[in-house]
Amino acid sequence: TGHTFTGHTTACAAGVAVQKIIARDGLIDRVRTRGAALQAELRQALAEFPEVGDIRGRGFFIGLEIVADPASKAPFAPEVKLYADIGRRALEAGLICYPCTGNVGGAAGDTIILAPPYNASEAELGEIVVTISAAITDAVIAARRTLAS
Questions:
Q1: What does the buried/exposed string (b/e) look like for 16-38 if buried means 16 or more CB atoms within 10 Å of the residue's CB?
Q2: What's the CA dihedral at 93, 98, 104, 109 to 10 degrees?
Q3: Which letter does DSSP use for residue 75 in this model?
Q4: Of the candidates 13, 61, 70, 6, which has an alpha carbon nearest to the alpha carbon of residue 38?
Q5: How high is the mean pLDDT in each 10-residue block of the chain (149 residues)?
C-alpha cells in the first residue's frame, strides 16, 4: 500500500535536490564531526547537574536523559512530568525539541531529543546549547524544590 503522495514528481524532485545540496556542501561529514563536539558542549554546559544521566547520539541526533537518582539512574516519578516542563521551557525560549517519556517501564523516564538541521550555523548550534541547558537547569531546580517540599 502507499500514501497519497507516494512517488509524487514534485516531492521526489525536492528530495533529490536536498540530497544534492547535502553532497555538495559536505554536510554528512560536518554532522559527523560537529555532532561529537555538540555533545561535548552539552555535557560541559550541564556538568553541574547530576540529574543529566546521559547525553548520547550520533551526529546531530542527540538524546539527553534526565534521572532522579544519578547513581542508580532511576527516573523521576511519572507525575513530575519533567520532560514536559523542559519541553515547555525550551519552546517558550524559541527552541523546538522532542520531550519524551515512557522509556522506563512504559510510564516513567524523561528524555529530550535534539535534532538540529544539518546546515545549522555555529551560532545556531551555540544557541541550542544555551537554550536547552537553561530549560533543563530551570526544570531540574523546580523539580528538586517540588520533591523537597
A1: eeeeeeeeeeebeebbeebbeeb
A2: 0
A3: P
A4: 61
A5: 68 92 96 96 96 96 96 94 97 97 92 97 98 97 89
Q: How far is CA 122 from CA 14, 58, 67, 74, in A?
A: 26, 18, 29, 34
Helix (H, G, I), strand (E, B) or coil at 83: helix
**Set of cell numbers at residue 75:** 527516573
Tell which residue, 128, 87, 115, 118, has the closest CA to residue 24.
Answer: 118
Contact yes or no for 56/43 (Cβ under 8 A): no
Interatomic CA distance for residues 132 and 112, integer angstroms:
9
pTM of the model: 0.88
Neighbours of 1 (CB within 10 A): 3
Q: Which residues of 108-138 are buried (b: 16+ CB within 10 A; e: fewer)?
A: bbbbbebebebebeeeebebbbebbbebbbe
Q: Which residue has the cell 533529490?
A: 16
Q: Give the Cα separation of 98 and 111 in Å (integer).
A: 8
